[in-house]
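look at this one:
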Amino acid sequence: MMNYADHHGFPVVIFIDTPGAFADLKSEELGQGESIAQNLRTMFGLKVPVVSIVTGEGGSGGALAVVCANKLLMLENAVLYVASPEACAAILWKTAKASPKAAEKLKITANDTCKLQISDGIIPEPLGGAHADPHWTSKQVKKAILESMDELQEMGTEELLRQRMLKYRKIGRFQEGLPVDPEKKVNMKRKEEPRPGLISDKVLLGEVDKLKEQILKANELSSIDMDQNRLIEKLKREISYEFSEAAKALGIEEKLIRMREEFAKAENEQLTSAQIENLENLKNEFNENLASAPNYGSLKYKLSLLKEVTEAKIFAENYKKTHPLKAKVNEKFKEVFEKSTLKKKIEDLKSEVEKAGVSTFEEFDQELKEKVLDVREEVEYEFVNALESSGVHVTSKFGQSSVSVIKVKVNELNAEINQTIQDIIESTPDLRNKIEMLKLEVVTDKSAPSKESKEKIEVLQQQIKEGVADVMSSAAIKEKYEQLQAELAELLSGGSVGS
C-alpha cells in the first residue's frame, strides 16, 4: 500500500493503536521480525511525505514498524514504548507490581517523548479523553495533519529523505555537563478542570481580574497569551453549557438535536430552503424565550466576562505590535534632541522666552513666534529623517510649521474681525439697541415662541447682519483674507504627502 502511494505521489498518513508484536515462537517462525525490518526499510525510502499519529497505544515492534515518518505526532493521552511497563517491571524488578515505577522510568507519555525529541508534536484532547468528544478530537487531528503536510510539501524529495533519516539518527544523543530538569515526583494523571456549570461566577470573575492585572503589569506577553486562550476556552465551554441548559429549560433541546442530525447528513450538500427556514424559526424561538430561562442571568454574566477577556486580548495584541515601534520612536526622539546644534538652538530659544517674560505662544511678538516655528520645523525635519532611516515609514511629513503659521494668522484675523465688529456695535446705538431687543425677544418667548415672535426675531437678525456686513467688506481685512487663501492654496499644491 505504501509503495502504491509512493508510486502515485500520494502522502502517507498512518494511525497507530497497537499493543505491539506478539513475542511467541510461532510469530517468529512466520517471519514477524523480517516483516518489521522490511517495513522499516520501505518507509525510510518513501519519496512522499509520511506522517504517523499515535492515537492510543504505540507498543513495541508493532508501533516501531510504522513510526519511521517525517512527522510523528501523539494524542495528548497516548503512550509510546519499546516494552510495556508490566513487561519492563517483570524483567527488572521480577514483579508486575512495580509497573508504575517502570512507566515513570520509561518516559512513555506524549509530553516525555516530545521533550526527548522522539515525537514531534502533541495533539490536544478534550477533558476526559478523546472518547469524551470524538468530533472535536478529529478536528484537532485533521488540523495537525494539514499543518504537517503544508510544512513537508515545501521540501524536495532529497530533503524529505534526509530529514526522515536525521530525525532518527539524532535520537539517543546527549552531551555531558548540560543542565537537566530536576526530577519531579508527580501523579501521572493530569488534574482535570471542573465540568462546565460547576465553576462559580465568583471564581471566573477572579480569573478575569487576575488576567487583567497580569496584562497591565507584564512586559513579556507570551505567557499571558496562553492564559488568555485558556480562559477564553473555559468561558466558551461555560457559555455553551449555559446555552444547552437554557435549551433544555425552554423545551427545544430535542428540536436542536434533530436539526444537528439533519445538518450532519447534509454536510457536503447545500441546505434546502425548508432547512434554512426551520433554522431561522428555531433561532427566533430560542432568542424570544431566552430571557425567561432560569439560568439567563448566569449566561448573560458569563457572556459579559467573555467580552471583557476578548477586549483584554485585543489590547494585549495591539500592545505587542506597537510596543517595539514606540521604543524605537522614543529612542530616535532622544537621539534628535541630543544633537549639539539643535540642543543649542533650543537652549537659546528658551533663554529668549524667559527674557520676554511671557508664558503662552499667543503673547509672543512676531519675531519670537517665527523663531519658535523655525526651530520646531527643524526638530520635526530631523525627527522624520531619523525615523525614515531606521525603517519607520512616516505617512505625512510636510508643512507642519507652515500649517502652524497659517493657523496663527487665521486666529489673528478672527480676533481682528471680532474686535472690529465689537467696535461698530459700541459706536452704533441703533445696532446695539437691536441686539438688546433680539436678546430680550429670545428670552421672553423661549419656552413656546408665537408666530409673531418668530417673525420679529428673523427681522431683527437680518437687520443686525446687514449692519455688520460692512465689516467684512473692509479693504484691510479683505486683503488679509485673500493673502491667507493664497498661502493655503500654495501649501496644498506645493506639499507632498507620503503614502
In short: Confidence is low (pLDDT under 50) at residues 182-191, 397-401, 494-499. Residues 47 and 161 are 7 Å apart (CA to CA). The two ends are 57 Å apart (CA to CA). The first strand starts at residue 12 and ends at 18.
